[in-house]
Amino acid sequence: MRILANQTLDKIGQEIELCGWIDKIRSHGKIIFLDLRDRSGIIQLVATNERIRVGLEDVVTVKGRVKKRPENLINPKLMTGTIEIEVIKLITLTIAKDLPFPINTDGYEINEEIRSKYRYLDIRRPRMIKNLRLRSQVTTFIRNFLTAQDFVEIETPLLTKTTPEGARDFIVPSRLQRGKFYALPQSPQQYKQLLMVAGVERYFQIVRCFRDEDPRADRAYGEFTQLDMELSFVSQEDILRLTEDMFTQVISKIFPDKYISQVPWPRIPHKIAKEKYGTDKPDIRKNKQDPNELAFSWTLDFPLFTQQSQKDYYYGSGNSKFAPSHHMFTAPHPDDVPLLEENPMKVRGLQHDLVLNGYEVGGGSIRIHDSKVQEKIFELIGFTPRQKQQFEHMLTAFTYGVPPHGGIAPGIDRFMMAVLGEPSVREVMAFPTSASGQTSVMDAPSQVTEKQLAELGLILGIN
Ligand code: ASP
Fold it and tell me: Strand pairing partners for 298?
């Protein structure tokens, strides 16, 4: 039966079987040293049989005997450096062509498009597979943490109706109802609020969100993953504390080399952040050269509205001055509600942004649960009656007993990028879309057939 490289150490003298890829080949006359790589690491094989013909990255299965290395040949850099495998039989299962780039470097020096085209090879690189493993440990930890605190993980639809969160939607044509479209969710915002009306009280979902925005280093094009959470009967304080507790534990359990430099996490009013740091996501690390320092902070007391501009085309009729700073479901600060009439730009929102080393890694708010206030916000944003109609389900749901509620949604990609000090979110994603919007390996977007278009009742215009 096949065992892993890291399971050989206590099997000295025994015959074992290994499978994996040929990572290195060194020939010393009649003796060949081969490094075999499997998911657990690397192990050295020694073959004296001249007929062994293998190439780098070939997939092999090996029968061999575990031997202790003489003291002077121990390799302290290798997990299995105290032993080696004397090859009895080696079978090549598949042969590998020369790889288009090296995989034993950290890979930053290689052109991103080529890395993306051959992502399945790029992931063989130790740094990449390590990042993906850590990411999996983080999401598993979070799932267990929240489940233990009585949260329920609930999936919400991906084929849905547009949720304006400040970005352009991806739309999907409907075949059954020609001429109509679904939108991929920018976030499950409305569904999670509806789940609060449903009495779930504590919801989370590790969920893909879709936004058709120009890519940046801290945002991949098209899609990203967030930890979406919503809670009923909570204050903003409860949400901040829970998030702080969860991420503090994530860091201490999964990234023991990292440390959080300021505890409790500083809470900075938006106005002060702007005045003191010139940004609402300040990098408050004490020593920016230190790769292990993590400086979390909260930005609070955002203004509820910003000045509406051209880019806010999806809100309202275009005649209003006000666009939501966060989104249209964020509650105004209770002390400021009268200002909604007198001076809306002065109203503070119960929004909280989570900042880590200068990146916004999450945002959330206490939500409006009073239909009248919600309608007032729609009005200030300048919603047309038709746009209001699109949110009728929220207002209707709120007439059947809605609990006060609020939530947050930390971005998993961005969190991983910031913690690991990676230069781009693409370094913590398996198959990220390139900066030009091309998907990894499969090269979408691609053309579809005339038949597919006809079924959807679509005719392509001029590009
Ligand atoms: N839906 C928000 C977002 O994706 C997060 C939230 O308000 O909970 O940014």
Answer: 267, 354
Helix boundaries (H) for 44-125: 112-117, 119-122
* Any atom of ligand 1 within 6 Å of the Cβ of 406: no
Cα(84) to centroid of ligand 1, in Å? 52
Q: What is the pLDDT of residues 57-114, one digit of tens each?
A: 999 999 999 999 999 999 999 999 999 999 999 999 999 999 999 999 999 999 999 9
Alpha carbon distance 159, 208 (integer Å): 12
* Structure tokens given for 119: 């992502």
209 C-alpha to center of ligand 1: Å? 10
- Cα(38)–Cα(15) distance, rounded to whole angstroms? 18
Q: Is 190 in the pocket of ligand 1 (CB under 6 A)?
A: no
Ligand 1 site, residue 363, Cβ cutoff 6 A: yes
187 Cβ inside 6 Å of ligand 1: yes
Tell me if 353 sits within 8 A of 360, measured CB to CB. Answer: yes
Task: Give the Å distance between the CA of 103 and the centre of ligand 1.
Answer: 37
What pLDDT is stored for residue 311 in this prediction? 64
Q: Which CATH class is domain 5-94?
A: mainly beta
Angle between helices 412-420 and 126-148 in degrees, nearest 10: 120
Largest CA distance in the chain: 89
Domain boundaries, the chain: 5-94, 117-428
What residue ranges of the chain have pLDDT lower than 70?
49-50, 163-164, 310-318, 462-463
Mutational test site, ligand 1, from 228, 234, 242, max ligand atoms within 8 Å of CB: 228
Q: What is the DSSP letter of 418?
A: H
CATH of 117-428 among 3.30.930.10, 3.40.640.10, 3.10.180.10, 1.20.1050.10: 3.30.930.10
Q: Whose CA is nearest to atom 4 of ligand 1?
A: 187
Residue 167 alpha carbon to ligand 1 centre in Å: 12
Distance 365 CA to ligand 1 centre (A): 8
What's the pLDDT at 454?
A: 95
Distance 186 CA to ligand 1 centre (A): 9
- Crossing angle (nearest 10°) for helices 236-254 and 126-148: 140
Amino acid 317: pLDDT: 57
pTM greater than 0.85 (yes/no): yes
